[in-house]
Design brief:
Largest sheet: 7 strands, parallel
Strand content: 15-25%
CATH architecture of the domain at 3-188 and 225-251 and 294-310 and 336-351: 3-Layer(aba) Sandwich
Helix content: 40-55%
Distance between the termini: 49 Å
Radius of gyration: 20 Å
Bound molecules: nicotinamide-adenine-dinucleotide, thymidine-5'-diphospho-beta-D-xylose
CATH topology of the domain at 3-188 and 225-251 and 294-310 and 336-351: Rossmann fold
CATH superfamily of the domain at 3-188 and 225-251 and 294-310 and 336-351: NAD(P)-binding Rossmann-like Domain
């Protein structure tokens, strides 16, 4: 039986992970520490909130007393650190929160784990959830990122994630901490906050608003269904080598404009409107420092851990579209006043 501290478990990937873990390992203890920022939502966890081993704690990963208390009360042996400011555009508008949560917060968790585990690292694991964005931008024909690729982050978000990855690595080299780092590509699926591309396109289209395409729409992302990310983290926790890094990806590269067009086409079938949703596609000013291409080489996950993604993209996207169509009230509820303020700053008042 494991005793997990999951941070950021009320966000998109974290809440999918908490649900995944409780359904796979119902006897484990899962303590979810989340500050409930604009991106955190307890409604994401309604199905499991009364599960016997589950506890939610409203708190901040930068709060050392709170984190220490949880290690002591819960005898935590496994940390899975999802908590982060995660949206690139917000990091461009205001980087400070990214430095605090992503760097300082990871530091606090590492220090608390080091103090609590003091040399008894044998069956303990500290898994840090990171991103492909730390590697920077790939040329069109370049080979996909391996775990050896040099770090070259280009946004305040990716720079803050890169800094946290370096801290995690250093705690293994210096203190022998049993750390693992996963760097994953773009996730999609249920419960993703609608400031990220796929849910933003779905909701704008359904509401007849412009569907904004940054720059020429030819940037490339490698998309992975969120459940496959969760099973990848499970595989790394089970059999990953402490001190190692694992790239997780879908081997599924798409130009933004193609994915946007595909979503509009599928919505034309699922929820026909007046005309095609494609008519709403609008090219807008590019994101500053916009990385051109990400692609992950996930062969280490396959050869060392036997992990491969289980969801193919058309099927995963269809499930995701249906989930949003069935959960429009969830979407309304998460789009609070704070979201509207961000949206107006990013896309202009007239796009509201
Ligand atoms: P998200 O923004 O949906 O959720 C983040 C969660 O962290 C929220 O519940 C929020 O309330 C919580 N949080 C923020 N600051 C906190 C703090 N100081 N203390 C405690 N909780 C705090 O993010 P996501 O998309 O689910 O991403 C989760 C993790 O996965 C992040 O570390 C991100 O860098 C990484 N990642 C995301 C993707 C992706 O495509 N979304 C891909 C690769 C890696
Ligand atoms: O309105 C938009 N129009 C648009 O063209 C938005 C919101 C995005 N885009 C483009 C920018 C990117 O090329 O779509 C692509 C995907 O954008 P995001 O959904 O913002 O994701 P990205 O910047 O790729 O980062 C995501 O993947 C890596 C997550 O948000 C990160 O947390 C993760 O680390």
């Amino acid at each position: 039986m494991r005793r997990l501290l999951v941070t950021g478990g009320a966000g998109f990937i974290g809440s999918n992970f908490v649900r995944y873990w409780i359904s796979c390992y119902p006897d484990d203890r899962v303590v979810n520490l989340d500050a409930l920022t604009y991106a955190g939502n307890l409604e994401n966890l309604r199905e499991i909130e009364t599960a016997p081993g589950y506890r939610f704690v409203h708190g901040d990963i930068t709060d050392r007393d709170c984190v220490d208390r949880l290690f002591a009360e819960e005898a935590i042996d496994t940390v899975v650190n999802f908590a982060a400011e995660s949206h690139v555009d917000r990091s461009i508008l205001g980087p400070e929160a990214f430095i605090k949560t992503n760097i300082q917060g990871t530091f606090v968790l590492l220090e608390a784990a080091r103090a609590a585990w003091q040399g008894e690292a044998q069956d303990r694991r500290f898994l840090h959830v990171s991103t492909d964005e730390v590697y920077g931008s790939l040329a069109p024909e370049a080979a996909a990122f391996t775990e050896q690729h040099r770090y070259a982050p280009n946004s305040p978000y990716s720079a803050s994630k890169a800094a946290s990855d370096h801290l995690v690595r250093a705690y293994h080299k210096t203190y022998g901490m049993p750390v693992l780092t996963t760097n994953c590509s773009n996730n999609y699926g249920p419960y993703q906050f609608p400031e990220k591309l796929i849910p933003l396109v779905i909701l704008n289209a359904l509401e007849g608003k412009p569907v904004p395409v940054y720059g020429d729409g030819m940037n490339i992302r490698d998309w992975l269904y969120v459940d496959d990310h969760c099973s990848g983290i499970d595989a790394v926790l089970a059999d990953g080598r402490p001190g190692s890094v694992y790239n997780i990806g879908g081997n599924n590269e798409w130009h933004n404009i193609d994915i946007i067009t595909l979503i509009c086409e599928r919505l034309d079938n699922l929820q026909p409107g007046q005309g095609s949703y494609q008519d709403l596609i609008t090219y807008v000013k590019d994101r500053p420092g916009h990385d051109r291409r990400y692609a992950m080489d996930a062969r280490r996950m396959q050869t060392e851990l036997g992990w491969t993604p289980q969801h193919d993209f058309p099927e995963g996207l269809e499930e995701t579209l249906k989930w949003y169509l069935d959960n429009l009230e969830w979407c309304d509820r998460v789009r609070t006043g704070e979201y509207r303020k961000y949206y107006a700053t990013q896309y202009g008042e007239e796009a509201l």
